[in-house]
Amino acid sequence: MSLRLCVIGNSHIGAIKLGWDRLMAEAVPGWDAIEPTFFGAPSDGMRHVALQDGALVPTRQKITSHFRQLSGGYDRIDLARFDAFLLIGLNMSSKRILRFYKSHAWVGLSGTAGKTLVHPAFAEAFLTERYRSTQLFEHAERLRGATDKPVLALAEPHWADWARQAPEGTSDYGWDAAICAGDGPAIGEMFLRVVGAALAPHAIFVPQPPETVADGVTTRGAYNKEASRLISGEGGGTDASHMNADFGLACWAAIHPALTAASCIEGVPA
């Protein structure tokens, strides 16, 4: 019997969907034990979804259209239809910790000049609380209150490493400053700890696959090449924040052991 997996996210669900399509196109043995259905909306569109009678229902027609397009016709998420849930992106990103690093540093980091220096335990507690104000946390909390099925979660990928030297006008969250100071790995490790701690009561956190990460806080450019947001139809490799099918494949390899442990599925290769 297949495990019915509900995948919910913002535009970062695109890479996960593309990775799944690759698995199916290449007929990788054993993956037929999982039957995913994808639901999502770009940007913060998933804010416009309400829990009604055991289902997540869009409260705006545009979001309903996104649901139908991505899921193959479903305009609501009936929770009882699924055996497990996978949350993708939903504003949980390393940008928050990098914003904190612009004005604060914790003991042990090198890039401390001109910043407020705090104890690592304070930074960890503060950032854990900050990550509880994301859509990903809110959806995990909502699902945990409505179902006892396993909930897994992936944060948004770190931006592509080329963003360090992006053209003028491109958003700069401080990747280059952190990496040049030698603090990238420590910031990346803190990110994993605080996101895991924030989600722990409600969801199992699946970290970004380590082989895709560069300098702790960026994503290797190969996983961004020819990227597509899928839902919005934009991307094409000019967007540092969205990843491609290769990234999606790496994520499915990371999702597998967590999903297997949580759901006791059989017949899916490690």
If you had to describe this structure to a student in words, what would you say it looks like?
This protein is an alpha/beta fold and 270 residues long. Helices cover 36% and strands 17% of the residues. It has 8 helices and 12 strands. The protein has helices at 13-25, 61-71, 95-103, 120-131, 135-146, 175-180, 184-199, 245-263; strands at residues 3-9, 34-40, 49-52, 55-58, 77-78, 84-88, 104-106, 116-118, 151-154, 204-205, 213-214, 218-219. The strands form 4 sheets. The chain has a 5-stranded parallel sheet, sandwiched between helices. It has a 3-stranded antiparallel sheet with strand order 3-4-5. A hairpin with a 3-residue loop joins strand 11 (213-214) and strand 12 (218-219). Helix 1 (13-25) crosses helix 8 (245-263) and helix 4 crosses helix 7.
Q: Care to give the gist of this entry?
A:
The chain is an alpha/beta fold and 270 residues long. The protein contains 8 helices and 12 strands. A 5-stranded parallel sheet has the order 2-1-6-9-10, with helices on both faces.
